[in-house]
Amino acid sequence: SGGTGNVINQTLINNSNQVGTVTYTVTPYYANCQGQPKTVVVTVYPKPTVTPSVTEEFICSGNATNISLSSNIANVTYSWTVIPNGVSGATPGTGNQISQNLIAVGVVGTVEYIVTPTVNGCIGDPVSIMVTVTPTPEIFTNSNPPAICSEDFTGISLSASIPGTTYEWTVVQNGVEGAF
């Protein structure tokens, strides 16, 4: 908008994904004398955004994240910080892909990636991405169960490194019936 005074202090907003401009034509006055107008052009870059492929991801311990970063503005760079909670392997970084092997240190851990987009010296709003990392249980059995007689119970005890683990098994029978 037009105005008066010795400072033009306006908040300019570019909601497009292209570079925009604002042209001010300033005319100086002193008493009743008008000076030569001067044109001032302000280039306004759009504020970059980041669009992650996911905002929440669930992986098993030892697997890699698979998070792609994009924007509706060209040439955006991305950087991220990490807030790990019971997870190792998460590191700050840059790029358009977050692919890090994460290991749960406890029962279930999380990593918050805080991604910040930048373009033309303009910093966009950070976006938070949460990754939940579930540990992979290690199974324990009574080692080398003894041979049994026909019609006896197997008695194979199962336990795991993580409380609450459930179990599934498959069976291959060779000259025996009753296994399922």
Short description:
With 180 residues, this protein is mainly beta. Helix content is 0%, strand content 41%.
Can you walk through the features of this model?
- The protein contains no helices and 17 strands.
- It is mostly beta strands and 180 residues long.
- A hairpin with a 2-residue loop joins strand 2 and strand 3.
- The protein starts with 19 loop residues before the first strand and ends in a 20-residue tail after the last strand.
Write the layout of secondary structure elements.
Elements (H helix, E strand, L loop, with lengths): L19 E7 L2 E2 L2 E2 L3 E7 L6 E2 L3 E5 L6 E4 L6 E9 L1 E2 L4 E2 L2 E2 L4 E2 L4 E11 L2 E2 L3 E8 L4 E3 L16 E3 L20
Parallel strand pairs: 6-15
Antiparallel strand pairs: 1-4, 2-3, 5-7, 7-11, 8-10, 8-13, 9-12, 13-14, 13-15, 16-17
Number of E-state strands: 17
Would you identify the regions where 5 or more consecutive residues have pLDDT less than 50? none
Q: Using only CA atoms, what is the Rg?
A: 31 Å
Fraction of helical residues:
under 10%
Derived from helix and strand composition plus strand pairing, the structural class reads mainly beta
Strand content: 35-45%
Shape: rod-shaped
Labels describing this entry:
6-stranded mixed beta sheet, rod-shaped, 3-stranded antiparallel beta sheet, 180 residues, mainly beta
